[in-house]
Design a protein that fits this description.
single chain, 384 residues, alpha+beta, four-stranded antiparallel beta sheet, 15% strand, binds acetoacetyl-coenzyme A
Length: 384
């Protein structure tokens, strides 16, 4: 049976929809060209509570459930996918990890700043030679008195340049595999944390993606998140939530591409009639709508499982896998429906097509999602 949204969830969805279409959507195409970071969007989103959605009220957040969060994120993605990825990493990965694993002192120190949008969060797990296999990372954190000294380099860090706080993983015991990895909260401006090369990407161009270099970066021991050796578990747990967020981003972009296609099909005439009258076109639209609804249900069911406190790793991977592959099919069809115009920047579908491409890659490729799903089925932890 389809998941039934509560009145409160519907209200949040409609409030964010109205906001995003009015305030964010009109500048999305321009931002894609200029690559300007959406700082003004994020400021307005913070005022609406969208940057601390699942942070408990006592730490300055909204205390919302995951379903409300993914509905909101999907509306932001409909309007601007580049703004949505910043919101997603910030909320699903950074804020959630601090809520889940932070000490009282860390929660008090960081959550208000994150919820108010004063600082945007980034998550530094990936390295130039450690992407799908983060256990092979080589960044180290060595204890030195009441500090750790971090050395290494991280790659493809969303909001690497524009963040105020970074969760970084590093090996505190290189002799151990995943159990030798720890996580740290590193404030921007800490000496030795260097924002390096910025990627020039095919999509999500207004969201910065950079290398972060840690060069003898001294971090107070009280900034370790969780215990020594907890870093991999913290990262995997964060990615479970993050992957539902990618499903939400996929859904938002897919709905935008779908709406653009329906609009276009109703006004474009060929062979003496609107192209919406052709069966070939109508079947494309029917398939698109069906796939979007299937992805929506998977996203909601993973979010509902998370909210109920049950283990939802497999459902998050299923939602991410299906939704991210779905949006790639849908945006390709949307370009096809627009014909030659779809290949130009006169219509938004070429941007949707480019933005969606990374959804089957970041926060775990489709292939990694299949590893997670099949390992959960066979329960034998087979290596990829
Ligand atoms: N929750 C909690 N613990 C988990 C877990 C989860 N979802 N998944 C694994 N673990 C634990 C296991 O229980 C195990 O712990 P024990 O030894 O104590 O039992 C430990 O972690 C190791 O598990 P595995 O042996 O399964 O680990 P693995 O090395 O085989 O890797 C993997 C598993 C699924 C392939 C994982 O490495 C993975 O997800 N890789 C993809 C990484 C990824 O998604 N990167 C994205 C980068 S971030 C990004 O893109 C963000 C952005 O900016 C947009």
């Amino acid at each position: 049976m389809a998941y039934q949204l509560t009145d409160e969830q519907l209200m949040i969805q409609s409030m964010v929809r109205e906001f995003a279409r009015k305030e964010i959507l009109p500048t999305a195409a321009e931002r894609d060209k200029s690559k300007e970071f959406p700082a003004d969007n994020l400021k307005k989103m913070a005022e609406l509570g969208l940057l601390g959605m699942m942070i408990p009220v006592q730490y300055g957040g909204e205390g919302a459930d995951t379903i409300s969060y993914v509905l909101a994120l999907s509306e932001i993605a409909y309007a601007c996918a580049a703004t949505a990825v910043v919101m997603s990493v910030h909320n699903s990965i950074v804020c959630e990890s601090i809520v889940r694993y932070g000490t009282e002192e860390q929660k008090k120190k960081y959550l208000k700043k994150l919820a108010s949008g004063k600082w945007i969060g980034a998550f530094a797990l990936t390295e130039p030679h450690a992407g799908s296999d983060p256990v092979s990372q080589s960044t180290t954190a060595e204890p030195d008195g009441d500090h750790y000294v971090i050395n290494g380099s991280k790659r493809f860090i969303t909001t690497g340049k524009n963040s105020g706080l970074v969760i970084v993983t590093a090996k505190t015991d290189p002799s151990k595999a995943h159990k030798g990895i720890s996580a740290f909260l590193v404030e921007k401006g800490t000496p030795g944390l260097i924002v390096d090369r910025e990627e020039d990407k095919m999509g999500l161009r207004a969201s910065d993606t950079t290398d972060l270099i840690f060069d003898n970066c001294r971090v107070p021991a009280q900034n370790r998140l969780g215990e020594e050796g907890d870093g991999f578990k913290i990262a995997m747990t964060a990615l479970d939530g993050g992957r539902i967020g990618i499903a939400a981003q996929s859904l938002g972009v897919a709905r935008a591409a779908f709406d653009a296609s329906v609009r276009y099909a109703k006004q474009r005439e060929q062979f003496g009639q609107k192209i919406s009258k052709f069966q070939g076109l109508r079947w494309m639209i029917a398939d698109m709508a069906t796939q979007i609804e299937a992805a929506r249900q998977l996203m909601l069911s993973a979010a509902a499982m998370k909210d109920s406190g049950r283990r939802y790793t497999m459902q998050a991977s299923m939602a991410k896998l299906f939704a991210s592959e779905m949006v790639n099919r849908i945006t390709a069809k949307a370009v096809q429906i627009h014909g030659g115009y779809g290949f130009t920047t006169d219509y938004p579908v070429e941007r949707y097509y480019r933005d969606a491409r990374v959804f089957t890659i970041y926060e775990g490729t489709s292939e990694i999602q299949r590893v997670v799903i099949s390992n959960n089925i066979f329960k034998d932890k087979r290596k990829p």
